[in-house]
Amino acid sequence: MKITHYNEILPVTMNNDLVKDVAGRVLIGQEEGAPNFCMRFFEMGPGGYTPKHTHDWEHEVFVHQGNGEVFVDAKWHPLSPGSAIFVPPNVVHQFKNTSEKIFTFICLVPSKAPEL
Amino acid sequence: MKITHYNEILPVTMNNDLVKDVAGRVLIGQEEGAPNFCMRFFEMGPGGYTPKHTHDWEHEVFVHQGNGEVFVDAKWHPLSPGSAIFVPPNVVHQFKNTSEKIFTFICLVPSKAPEL
Question: Is the ipTM above a cut-off of 0.85?
Answer without folding.
Answer: yes
